[in-house]
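REQUEST FORM: STRUCTURE PREDICTION
Request ID: SP-0412
Submitted by: Lab K.M.
Chain count: 1
Length (residues): 256
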Amino acid sequence: MAAVLVGVSLLTGCGSKADGVDDLPSATALPPGQGGDQLVLRWRMTGGMAGLGGPWTVPDLSLYADGTAIVPGKPGRTSRLQRYHLKRAVAQRFFDEARKAGLQRSRKVDTKTQVADAMVLVIWMGSAKTEIVMPQEQHIAATALWKKLQPDQWSTGDQQSPPDVYRPDRLAVSALDTGEHPAPPGAIPWPLSPLGKGRQLARGGLCTIYTGGDAARLRELASKADLGARFSSGGKVYMVRVRPLLPDEKSCDALV
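STATUS: Completed
RESULT:
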């Protein structure tokens, strides 16, 4: 099972501001532990020859209103998401800097020359989306902020407590019908609700959300199944991918 336990010329997009961005609470107004599911900033590196940053990958960083930041763990079967806890004043400085960089407005920062397989940095502030082509070569306020949004570089003095592991309570499964019939030897009976009842994804496959005890069973299954394992469910055979949902991701819609 491919388990993800661990997305110069200036082109202005539609709209002048992101819905809800101006209404985001001040981090300094939030008591500790509150507002943790209200996303303020997120970035993901996409593109390149390896095709980085698809919707089913965990974003490189998600920063919430209370100063909680969640990042992928190191690649591997036992990868766990890491959680950081910024002091609220430090988080607020990042939010203020993001506004000064114009991240509350959707836009695209391109290069003068077209480069095949170029890396593209995508930064979200609320619902506003900024795309920056070849960010290492763009010397603008948005990329200056991006370089600061690297948790492994944050000092302990900027954090209100040590980093820990983020344990999601919701897991999403993408199931792709392999068309194999009959089921090949070694196909594993799917032990949870039928995969065929999941929501159809635009890029193919069916998405199902598991919570509670089912999520716990799924974690155990993901830790034991071999890469590329087949699962039988409802008379069909599927390959599946597992993706933890972050605090702001409530359904399969967040992964489209």
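NOTES: The first helix runs from residue 88 to 100.
Reviewed by: T.R.
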